[in-house]
## 1
Amino acid sequence: MRGGYDTIGQWLRANLFRSPLDGMLTVLVGLGLAWCLYGIARWAVVDADWSIVSDNLRFLAVGTLPAHANWHAEIVGGVMVLLAAHAATNGAYVGGRIPAALLVGLALTIAGIAVPLRFLVWVGLGLAVIAVVIPRARRTFGQARLVTSLWAAGAIAVIAALASTDLDLIGGLLLSLLLTTTTAIASLPLGILLALGRRSRNVLLRVLCSAYIELARSLPLLLVVYWIWLMLPLLVPGWHTADIVRAGTAFALFVSAYVAEYIRTGLEAVQRGQIEAAEALGLRTTDINRYIVIPQALRTVFPALVGNVLEIFNAIPLLFIIGSVDLLRAGQIILSNPEYGANAMEMYLFVFIVYLAIGSTITALSRKIERRAGRAR
Amino acid sequence: MATIIDINSVDKFFGAYQALHQVSLTIAPGEVVVLIGASGSGKSTLIRCVNGLESYHEGSIAVSCVQLPRGELRSKRDDDRLRSIRRQVGMVFQQFNLFSNLTAIENVTLAPRRVLGMKPEAATAEGLKLLSRVGLADHAWKYPAELSGGQQQRVAIARSLAMQPRIMLFDEPTSALDPEMVGEVLDVMRELRSDGMTMLIVTHEMGFAREVADRVVYMDQGAIVETGSPTDIFDKPRHARTNAFLSRVLRH
Amino acid sequence: MKAGSRPAHTVRRAALVAAGILAAALFAIGIGLFADLPTFGLDYRYLLNRAGIDLSEGSTIALEEGLPGFARFGPEMANWQALLAGLFNNLKIIVVALVASTLLGTLVGVALLSRNALVRALSFGYVELIRNTPLLVQLVFWYFAIILSFPPVSAAIDLYGWLIVSRRGISFPGLSVVESGWLSIILAACVLVLVCWYLWRRPGPGRLPIALLSFGALIAAIPIVGSPVELSFPVVKRFSVAGGIGLSAELTGMLLALVVFTAAYIAEIIRGVILSVPRGQSEAAQALGLSNRHTMQDVILPQVYRVVLPALSNQYVSLAKNTSLGIAIGYPDLFNVSGTIANQTGRNFESILLVMLAYLLVSWTIIGGTSAINAALRRRA
């Protein structure tokens, strides 16, 4: 048994009842916990009226997306799963995992066809593709090219999902996931550019990048995002895109300051000898950055960047300030209907649980990646 | 040309500390020169000045009649000049410094592709030839982390050779290796010498120095104390300091 | 967003960079305000105009009988006073939440390392719950789901005047200063500061008696001089609660959400710091014969203090930034108020600039303050 205990009794005594005081604490806390849980469960099953959630499920999930555009949701969902699966398996594709991922992928595909639920089919196919393609691709193309092409593929898929529909109709959970994905993808190159600019020999570039990074990190998100969102149409004359693109751009610019700091840590961790060897070979600075410094820096900070995705996801609700309707806002809009006034608790609890589920998944993935990165060292 | 490396009365400072005092040295094409001396004697600093990894403050250093830029500040023209010099000068480091994110063959082909403009297929073919020359053709697709120290250093030598340099600099190439791997690296260096490569080597391997060097240079406290043929230096040192150093080192 | 780790030299660099921007901005404001020159289209004279808005709560600096003092904000006051009221509303939260979340966070941080598996599991659950959900969701949950389910004022929960809870907020008894009481208070404060300074500089036995003695003397002086403060109990009136210290529903919601949120992150930091003290330290202490209590007090905790403050200062700055979320529940914080004023006067850019400056100042104060305390602690330990 874990910890070296022979029986459950021993484990209980050591962990919960080590001393009389300890035992009393356990009993009190245990009783309190049970009472709370009972109260919540009772309320949830007996008193609560969940129709506010069930009636409005579509709005909460995709906002005002027209029915014929459902495939957008499916593509985004599929891309999310692909990215998550890639993130979870990045770094070491050990023997046992390929068959498992392949099996799960095939199973989901079949289930999706049977149920029928098109979303599942997408997810299943995606997993199966990942299981087979990625190891082979890595051998043929090399790690760097593989990662780049996956980023590019993700970006293209997301853009395709956004195309040919009125973007402002997207809302709810779909918007949250969409914005998370696009921001995570877009902030990476922006962050790299900022981090490199901060180390540049050009003094003006260095000052501008430093100033931007420090300001964006010292000021509240609401403030910075609102400011950028206001300024964008002025700085880029003829800005005619949808609101969501404007919101997404402002947010991505904000996040890239944080990403730049992570990358800076990675850049500073690259050993001096690597750069000297490259210089001794006569390589240009751009080439040194592109082939040696940045790949090594990214490898070092990759776990932190994945953790950053959680921060991005948790910051999306704050974009209400620039008018985006994510899951939380959708819930609040529903609640403004006087008919649902008394059911605030149900709605907020639902929203809370959905966010918690997704957040916990991202955290679990992030932990797994950190563990694997630590082992590989 | 008569000399391929021309070092003339070079002074170098690290802040207030003077690392090189009026160092002068000329090396002819095809010559193998070995620098010996205690740590802190300036031999690594000198060799790193030859390909511009360290800057020098007084005097002049010229490689193939092209002068290296003097001083700390470098203009764009200085950078271009430096890079053209580095194309002819290969360097092998004590810590190997193989690019950890690239395989052995990728390490060898990166510079030929990006600096010499070779096509990937040609570069890979050349790279594989070099790797088999150092005895590592089977390990071409391994990452540095999967190679032993001796293997990494041999890949590093192949990487420098891929640029077809006229001069090879070696900064204590075997000091970081376990004793049993020193031999394989020295073998490669012996081969290079018989192929006629101009080599400037910093090493503690006195037996090797006696065997391959055309000239041995003893440095102490940033200045050249004595130079001569291996027999002259090892058997008949003229300066007391040289004698003292050799007796300390050759005792074991 | 999560605050990353910031070693001292990057903090200095950040300060330098932002200082340049601050200087430039102040310059622009100054010119705009006092000279008649337009600077980049910025015009700050609107700050002196009458606000014409009302805030649900907040005090600001106003002139009473010629002397500056605190007064409840009203629509007849100027715009700058409105902004100041908003800033004070932020500060109210920051000061209280900083202390409360540190206390709660330390408690939970220690609980995360408890021997009792149930306590450990609960603490872990709490931290995971908080970290995996967005702060805004937690805030609206606290406010809309919980506080607005409190009973209305007419049916308020009233614990004999010691605590009154209703939909309008919570109230509890508070001290208010009697007419002439200010002088006594200031004198007593001076005495206390002197005593503390003396005790700080002269460590050694006998400190506790001196402290108790001086405190006792102050208390004994009260019947002689007359109490400078009096306790006022809150009383439920028809539509509101009067007396005592009253926290509005919005303020309560902000405090609850921010304290619970920040405490979870602080707990993780505390746990990490305690774990990072090498086991060899306590082993050596035990080998020397030190008791558990002395091990904790003299060996472990000093090492914790040395390391923990810079990490905590990051969380404090995050806390300060998070107070801007008040706008989501209608708490009149600086961002909220400046938004309202910007709407009225059309001065968007000027408003944002002012708010940015205010936040930068607050961040620096926090970073500077914790650096100073950290330096003092390190010198001592």
## 2
Amino acid sequence: MSKDKAPRILKIDILRFDPHDPEDFPSMERFEIEESHGMTLFIALNDIREHHDNSLKYDFVCRAGICGSCSMLVNGRPTLACRTLTSKLDEHITLAPLPLFELIGDLSVYTGKWMRGLNEKLETWIHDKENELNVDKLEEKMEPELADEIYELDRCVECGCCVAGCGTIQMRPYFKGAVGLNKIARYHLDPRDKRSDEEYYELIGNEDGVFGCMTLLGCEDVCPKDLPLQSKIAYLRRMMLKTAVKN
Amino acid sequence: MKQEKLDKTPARLDFTQSITGLILAIFIMGHILFEASILISKEMMYKVTIMFEGYYFFGETYPGIISFLAGFIFVIFIVHAGIALRKFPDNYRQHMAMKRHTLGMKHEDTYLWIIQLSTGFLMFFIGSVHLYMMIAEPSDIGPYASSYRVVHEMLAPLYFLLLISVITHAFIGLYRLALKWGFMEGKNTKVSRARYKLLMRVFIVVYILVGLASLAKYISIGLEHDYSAGVKKYESQTIKMENH
Amino acid sequence: MKVIYTDVLIIGGGLAGLRVATGVKERGHEAVVLSLVPPKRSHSAAAQGGMQASLANSAMGEGDNEDVHFEDTIKGSDWGADQRVARMFTHCAPKAIRELAHWGVPWSRVKRGDHQSIINAQKVTISEKDEAHGLITARDFGGTKKWRTCYTSDGTGHSMLYAMDNKAHEDRVEIHERLEAMALIHENGRCYGAVARNLMSGELVAYVSKATTIATGGYGRIYEVSTNAIICQGTGQALALESGVATLGNMEAIQFHPTAIVPVGILTTEGCRGDGGLLLDKDGYRFMPDYEPDKKELASRDVVSRRMTEHMRKGKGVKSRYGDHLWLDITILGREHIEKNLREVKEICENFLGIDPAEEWIPVRPTQHYSMGGIRTKHTGESQTLKGLYSCGEAACWDMHGFNRLGGNSVSETVVSGMLVAEYISDFLDSSDSDITIHTKNVEKFVKTEQAKLDKLLENEGGEDAYVLRRRMEKIMMEKVGIFRNGKDLKEAVDELEELLKRSKNIDVFRSKSRAANPALVNAYRTQKMIRVALTVAMGAYLREESRGAHSREDFPERNDEKWLKRTITSWPDTEQTLPTVTYEDIDISEMELPPGFRGYGKDMTIHNSATKEAQEKVDSIKAKMEAEGKDRFEIQEALMPFKDILPKKYQGKNERLTERLENE
Ligand SMILES: Cc1cc2nc3c(=O)[nH]c(=O)nc-3n(C[C@H](O)[C@H](O)[C@H](O)COP(=O)(O)OP(=O)(O)OC[C@H]3O[C@@H](n4cnc5c(N)ncnc54)[C@H](O)[C@@H]3O)c2cc1C
Ligand code: HEM
Ligand code: HEM
Ligand code: SF4
Ligand code: F3S
Ligand code: FES
């Protein structure tokens, strides 16, 4: 925005619904606000809440694109709202909550609960019963490159964008989605996790797991952390096929 | 460690779907090219035909070979389609969810899948008809016979549809196949994906053009050729066969 | 009334809270964790730079150990810290990091051979030993003698928090998300849990527990611009304060981080400077060496922040529509390094500034970042005045940071204090002291009081707009209780805040009247709490007439050990009070292992305490004598200030290092 140009008036349409109110039904509401320099959707929504409608619900925590709280559909695409600059959008913006997740109200959805269920199902923690840790001793060694590779997959912020961006899971909600598959890829890579290929197969070697993925690649294209989802799902598919053949 | 038996079915199905798709795609790539031999000359097309009928191996033609080949392809086709059926929306709710999702997301690769789904659905019918014909009347292949079918049995529109469907379906399929299994992906998977996508587009365009040209040629032969004496076999200038 | 009983109620699902939960669980006690947000979204996830632990694996960390880490921490604290606590901490940090490695944090590792690095704007080659290959590596951070800050790329807090939360899943810790603790339930100086509000349904729930832990993180959001997450609103400190019994310590000790981007205040990690990034002024001139020739950009945070502010006041700042700022230049590190080790920084620059930090300079300015103060506790994490109430992590002041914390010491503190406090709580639960005697009727009373407060907010008409009050409070804190402080401004701040507090009793939640999920209601009651917390900060700062660590008074520039070697203790015994009650707690020089000295920045302006000299002489003579006797560093330390006996038994063992191997088993 240059100085001499008048700021744009943003027309923001928000899908509103309060599931706690028996008389409410989903509807679009339009808010018009003046754009400011460097404005993000975080700033825009706060502006609306503070000056237009204090009942507007949404979730921000870190407001820095780190925590994964603020995912929503911006013009139909799932993304982190806090790091979306309005200047990169048209002046007409549509916001809607992520589908599939439990709706708390307006733009606020309960991704956390869904993710917890997923983590519990996939047991996303290091399985190592044999190794008793002695905290005084030197830590176990790990190849530096491997550590980097694991971190690369560990960067997922459980924002749910890949879930909202996946057509498969819209049709079949039991599908574990890219987020779940990526987590398995992460633990599969980790030598500290002692689970066997067969045990992993039990977890994802089915239609709700890796064989349910139809390679729509929405996940890969919307993931705000740019995780290598396509290549990791492919890797797991090969692994799981091998495991099936081996047995 | 648990020692239960793994349920291998999902792995098998997924793999079978891919491998049948791959076979079909390779087959079609050849099919359209062989068929395009008509663009060179009738003679060429004839040679290709009798090649498939085994002439160059046995010195004679056996149209049964084509029947057999078509039967084989038919089986693969059915298996492929049967397995693919799993991926179709099972009910109205799923259909609506996918529709809403696709329209909202405006995401290219999701569209590609939708295209595959619909072309697959279409081929289920027209592909079957075509294959059935090839199994039933394998000897009716040749520059004139084929042209007759295209024009006078009104198969041109059908072939047109089939051509568009099968080419898009096959190359989108190959593209997805590569990504699905991580085939030859480089260090930067974004780059390899972009390359595959470009290849996919080029192949679709080239193949459709070639197919359309052949189809046009068949139509023109079909219109120009005099079928008043019935559909007679093509007479080659170079190859003389006694037993016809 | 819904009542949930448990052994330990943990308020806060960040690193500290989760570590307490898994710890008590391991000892066989039930735990419930309450959190405003799913634990993985807690602010701990934002820590980019790293965690300090004296592993001494990397070449630049060689020779590091607990002693060096201890000394850095105490100097950093400007002698405000509790030295025994700092000892406990530095001793346990290596254990905590090894535990986390075992639970899945993929710490960045040492790679054998030569590496290029940038130190003081010069390329240098660092050569790593063969035997260290694959062990946890470390980077340089401000205020440390050795490279001690362990990290996972630049997502340290994220990977720690995820590993911790996953561990909690494995241990089947009960986690109640989107629940906000509203008030402590207590009776006769004993805490029995808390009343919490479900942020989705609005329901009030009473959690009755034998021990209650507050691990709610910091209170940075009382400032207008802060690097903190927007949920860091000090509601945990307010819980303690509003009990009327528990106390807060050193609330005025607020840290400003030198490099938050302008204008939004999102942090770029200290790792930028640790890895070799430079601070430049409007002329592109590197000014830090002029002020701090020795440590330059890597002086302690409070020092760098002040120097930057000073430099901008000289007119050397870059003008922008959001006020002055300076530049952070990391282009010299090269694209490869940035894309690998500072990727989060790169993303932030791209998404919020629209620039590429490998090509362009980053606009930065010192911004509120960390709260050294918090709920005052003993070394066990238990409140000094309210039995059964514990606190740890950033929420607490057990007091290892004193008046300034070192970068990387905070996430480290969360896990160390978490693991220690879990043991102390478990010991408490194992004793008969922990029996619960509160009557249900009294529990109900607390719930009703909270309900009445909410009702009043919703039913009030023609009252104050919470947003207006809150914005004013944020402004006051920003302008008058900032990096440089003075008596006049602080007085005004206290007066104005007191006025706001009075007005806040008459807040009216207009338009949005839902009792369920209702952001306006939430903002209303939090604003009331935040103003109280802000008052303790302003008041403490106003009364403390000296400069120590991050607390810097222009009218009292010297550190005054004679008068002010003490902790500020604030409390709110009567709800009708409009100002907090302030008392002080002396810090005993004679018990120090490291008596007060010069921190080594700028000119030494310390007004020393008369006891300092004597203490120093005593320490020196013990050291000299024992060294002559050939005693090792552990024995000497033990003689100077014993602390092992107060540590839980399982954490008393020595730490192994490459150069300090433990005997077999
Ligand atoms: C941008 C940034 C970068 C940082 N980088 C580093 C670094 O590199 N190294 C370092 O050592 N430190 C760093 N820090 C500091 C460090 O991250 C924090 O001090 C530390 O993570 C605090 O952890 P915690 O567990 O105490 O609290 P938090 O992680 O803040 O967790 C607080 C928890 O309490 C819950 N909660 C709050 N109020 C309530 C309530 N009323 N009821 C119920 N639940 C409640 C929240 O939901 C949350 O789960 C950084 C801080 C910031 C702001
Ligand atoms: C009745 C006809 C057909 C139907 C119903 C059908 C359907 C489908 C469907 C739905 C898919 C997507 C599967 C998925 O998303 O996992 C698919 C994939 C594929 N199809 Fe077909 N198809 C048919 C015929 C063909 C033909 C004739 C070819 C070759 C020319 C072909 C080649 C492929 C390929 C290569 C794939 C990708 C394989 C994979 O994803 O594993 N298909 N098909
Ligand atoms: C072995 C089995 C097959 C044989 C022998 C065969 C043979 C032929 C022949 C001879 C033609 C020329 C037209 C005619 O004679 O009618 C033709 C055209 C065509 N076939 Fe097949 N076919 C086979 C399988 C398939 C399959 C499986 C598909 C796709 C599903 C297919 C798609 C087409 C198309 C699209 C055309 C029109 C081509 C054009 O426009 O140039 N065929 N086929
Ligand atoms: S994989 Fe990416 S899109 Fe999916 S939850 Fe994780 S960060 Fe979000
Ligand atoms: S979008 Fe869905 S279908 Fe697979 S490739 Fe991604 S998970
Ligand atoms: S608020 Fe944390 S990612 Fe947007």
